Amino acid sequence: MWTDTQEGRKLIAELTYEVVGEVAPEEQEIFDELLQEYYQPTKPDARRASGSDDPLGFGLEGVVSMATPAAAALVATFLNHMLDEAAKTLQDESAEAVKQKITALFHRTKDQKPADDKPAEPAGGAKVEAAAVGFDRNQLAVILKAAKDEARKRGASKDEAEQMANALFVRLALT
């Protein structure tokens, strides 16, 4: 997925930092270290098996859960779902544009000729613009629910996951 690329990870880090600033600003001082926990493979009961209660290995004993890894999971899930929904939307639009072009090709009048002088358009004639890829309420609800669920899996409480999702949504809405 795109979120596994350097560019994707950079965006995840930027958005997560802003979300953490809203829900757990005290974690911003050690943000980079906490973010690395998100990228570590998750193993249930791994901390108990090692006999260590220190989630990061540098003196934070007694910390039950940190917001940063859960916020990163929420952001990554949100971005992945947004990309999936955008791809579906563009695919549907592209398919419809191709159908229209094929129909027009076979329903030309005898004196019409194909327009060879027009510049080529992207995939199936669909013009990709930022405003063209919108999400309806249902799509956003599904995306936000999946993001909150992922944050909960990473240790966030229901309220924390809700706060994180709200902070992310407000950040994206203001952009």
How many distinct helices? 6
Rounded to an integer in angstroms, the radius of gyration calculated over CA atoms is: 22 Å
Give the biggest sheet: none
For the termini, the CA-CA separation is 23 Å
Helix content: 55-70%
Residue stretches low in confidence (pLDDT < 50, at least 5 long) are 44-54, 60-64, 116-133
Task: Tally the structural domains.
Answer: 1
Shape: elongated
Beta-strand share of residues:
under 5%
Output mean pLDDT: 75
User: How many runs of DSSP E, i.e. beta strands?
Assistant: 0
Structural class: mainly alpha
User: What order do the helices and strands follow?
Assistant: HHHHHH
Q: What's the multimeric state?
A: single chain
Topology:
Layout: H1 6-23, H2 31-39, H3 46-50, H4 67-106, H5 137-153, H6 158-173
Describe this structure in words.
The protein has one domain (2-86, 127-173). The chain is built from six helices and no strands. Helix 4 crosses helix 6. The two termini are 23 Å apart. It is mostly helical and 175 residues long.
Search tags:
single chain
How would you concisely characterize the structure shown here?
The chain contains six helices and no strands. The protein is mainly alpha-helical.
